[in-house]
Amino acid sequence: MFKTIEWKNNCVRLIDQIRLPEKEVYVDCRNYEEVAQAIEKMIVRGAPAIGVTAAFGVALGAIKSKANNIESFKAEFDKICTRLSLTRPTAVNLFWAIKRMEEVFNRNKNKSIDDLKKLLLKEAKEIYKEDIQINKSIGMFGKRLINDGDIVLTHCNAGALATAGFGTALGVIRASVRDGKKLTVFAGETRPFLQGARLTTWELLKDRIPVTLICDNMVGYFMKKGEISKVIVGADRIALNGDVANKIGTYNIAVLAKEHNIPFYVAAPISTIDPRIKNGSSIPIEERKPSEVTTIRGNSIAPKEVKAKNPAFDITSNHYITGIITEKGILRKPFSLSIKRILKKSHYER
Amino acid sequence: MFKTIEWKNNCVRLIDQIRLPEKEVYVDCRNYEEVAQAIEKMIVRGAPAIGVTAAFGVALGAIKSKANNIESFKAEFDKICTRLSLTRPTAVNLFWAIKRMEEVFNRNKNKSIDDLKKLLLKEAKEIYKEDIQINKSIGMFGKRLINDGDIVLTHCNAGALATAGFGTALGVIRASVRDGKKLTVFAGETRPFLQGARLTTWELLKDRIPVTLICDNMVGYFMKKGEISKVIVGADRIALNGDVANKIGTYNIAVLAKEHNIPFYVAAPISTIDPRIKNGSSIPIEERKPSEVTTIRGNSIAPKEVKAKNPAFDITSNHYITGIITEKGILRKPFSLSIKRILKKSHYER
User: Fold this and answer.
1) Which of A39, A336, A338, B48 would bridge A331 by S-S if both were Cys, CB 3.0 to 4.6 A apart?
2) Which of A117, A176, A154, A344 is nearest to A254 (CA)?
3) Does A180 contact B at CB distance below 8 Å?
4) Dihedral sign, Cα of residue B216, residue B222, residue B226, residue B227
5) CA distance A149 to A270
6) In angstroms, rounded to a whole number, what is the distance separating the alpha carbons of residues A50 and A59?
7) Cis, bond preceding A290 (omega within 30 deg of 0)
């Protein structure tokens, strides 16, 4: 099995998600700046994977520091955290993971620089391991929602490639298949970056889970024909009222699912819930380069002089969402209540 | 200005819509088989353009015939019509145009073969000229619906490239702009064949009409933001109850438009209404090769072994449609009544 993220030889090793599915190659980031650029260029993508990678990036930056007193080490540490937090604005897991690293630093600032370096790497490894465990728990809760024979539409890639391993939305699929349930996945291709066409299909084919690729604009057609029974997607940030930011195109699917009475589930770790955000309208949406729309993998598909827009995410209002599958259980409406409850519970358990 | 279709030197000359926007090149079809293949390969596409091309194809086939008696000429003529009618199944304009050519033949079967050939070419040229006129009338009626400052979303290409000239949906845009109205067009890229990205943008840039390219899955995002005020699309076939077959993705947009209370208009000639089809469920939907989904302009975007589906059209039920803009006026709900009335009127006027 491939590894999305790995700590190896004092490097952060990433599977290069730009070159998939043609080539399975790995990129070694040797310093935190290379980690930051890998996140920006989307060599690694997917909210939980970005979080884990950023944590390793912070550890890597700290370990490579030549500072010989705590003040200059702290200054360098802050610079590293700032740089990594400026890579992408929408997925909250990035900020959450960096914050966890900062907390480790602050709790242990009386220790030696060497000890601090060790503790930071330990925390990053912890976040990595936790993420896989969390995904398995999401799968365990989510599989209860899946019936034998279901045809599940997913969007973008919320799989092993979007996490430390196993996946959120695809974790639910994997857990269901391991239970012996027969199901088919419809993967929306997910323009402009084609995560569905390139990554979700690749992952599922490796696991021999039946997958059919469709264009994003075919979703209504197949829903109307009764060929999609459930939708499961990931999330980049969840507001306290249950509004969900996820890959552009998710909102289209949510509206279509509602119109056809098809359950629409979001699968995400609790760390995706942003306790500072009351509703979706406050979630910042990343605007990426228009050239990602006017070209496909380097080949032009439109006149050179044409204007294009490229919002990378959209917001799905809570009323389109049937349930949010987390590692602590499935959240139901009203989400403002169920989210409050789960955040409290998670806080007590820490 | 470019010409989509032209009768030139006893050839059917077509602008090669596969090679746009990079290259503006023309293909000369020297016999009806070449015309048929040009339609199949989508060198020419768009319901009205396919109709006009097929009419020229029938004329070309007849003119090139070496038959020296009316029986063998008739047999050859039937073969030509059958071949051309098997090129694509969804757009009714194809069958409508071929039927008009057959009627000319049947009305004049007592004339000489030479006279028949002349009459057939005359009819094809008539269909061509009428189509441009019809589009201008569609524009004249449609522009009443457009306000200064509108941002109009269109899908696929229902422009000059989809017709003999001027366009249906883009004809409404052109007529509005000529009236001095300021508007912006949002062009959905229209996967898998990218007619929006490649053709609509190209046409509108030539006319200096402001156009912004978006991916199909961004429609909900911009509607929610209030950045789309109207939708106008073309049609490949319209049922007697007003259900509309159009390029895949149209139905997604119609559902989203309804959810956001945005008017959704269809612009099409009356010949697009199929009097034999009661509702959309009886309209045949063309399934094209999966490789159109798994590759983009020859470049692979998915694992080679992945399964893909490629329905080329979808059906939008009449209740999503605000109005149908025809060359005789704008049809309103209930469409079964307004369509009945317009068909009767058109019949009397013939």
Assistant:
1) A338
2) A154
3) no
4) negative
5) 29
6) 14
7) no
B151 touching A, CB under 8 A?
no
Q: Are strands B184-188 and B211-214 parallel, antiparallel or unpaired?
A: parallel
DSSP secondary structure letter of residue A278:
S
How is B199-263 classified by DSSP, letter by letter?
A: IIHHHHHHTT--EEEE-GGGHHHHHHTT---EEEE--SEE-TTS-EEEETTHHHHHHHHHHTT--
Q: Computed over its alpha carbons, how large is the radius of gyration of chain A?
A: 20
A214 vs A193: CA distance, rounded Å: 15
Chain A contact present for B293, CB below 8 A = yes
Q: In sequence order, which residues have a C-beta less than 8 Å from that of residue A99 and are 6 or more positions away?
A: none
Closest CA to B87 of B288, B252, B296, B346: B288
Beta strands at A230-233 and A151-154: parallel, antiparallel or unpaired:
parallel
Cβ pairs bridging A and B (under 8 Å): 171
Block means of pLDDT (10 residues each) for chain A, length 350 residues? 95 97 97 98 97 98 97 97 97 96 97 97 98 98 98 98 97 98 98 97 97 98 98 98 98 98 98 96 96 92 97 98 98 98 80
Q: Is A319's Cβ below 8 Å from some Cβ in B?
A: no
Asked if B197 lies within 8 A of A249 by C-beta distance, the reply is no
Q: Write the single-letter amino acid at A191.
A: R
Q: Is pLDDT of B140 > 80?
A: yes
| Active site (catalytic) residues of B | 236
Q: Is A214 on the interface with B (CB under 8 A)?
A: yes
Beta bridge pairs of residue A273: A238
Of B191, B221, B307, the CB nearest to A217: B191
The DSSP secondary-structure symbol of B87 reads: S
Over residues B23-51, the pLDDT tens digits come to 999 999 999 999 999 999 999 999 999 99
% residues pLDDT > 90 (chain B): 97
Q: Determine, for residues B293 and A190 on separate chains, whether the beta-carbon distance falls below 8 Å.
A: no
What is the chain B residue with the closest CA to A208? B306
The maximal CA–CA distance of chain B, rounded, in angstroms, is: 67
Distances (CA, A) of A74 to A55, A58, A69: 16, 12, 9
CB contact under 8 A, A217 and B315: no
ipTM, two decimals, is 0.96
Over residues B262-280, the mean pLDDT reads 97
| Closest chain B residue to A309, measured at CA | B214
